[in-house]
Amino acid sequence: MEITNVMEYEKIAKEKLPKLVYDYYASGAEDQWTLQENRNAFSRILFRPRILKDVSEIDVSTRVLGFNISMPIMVAPTAMQKMAHPDGELATARATSAAGTIMTLSTCATCSVDEVASTGPGIRFFQLYVYKDRNVVRQLAKRAEEAGFKAIALTVDTPRFGRREADIKNRFALPRDLTLKNFEGLDLGEIDKTNDSWLASYAASQVDQSLSWKDIKWLQSITSLPILLKGVLTAEDARIAVEYGAEGIIVSNHGARSQLDYVPPTIMALEEVVKAVQGRIPVFLDGGVRRGTDIFKALALGASGVFVGRPTLFSLAADGEAGVRKMLQMLRDELELTMALSGCSSLREISRNHIKTDWDFPHYLPAKL
Question: Which of 10, 117, 262, 286 can bridge 252 by disulfide, Cβ–Cβ 3.0-4.6 Å?
Answer without folding.
Answer: 286
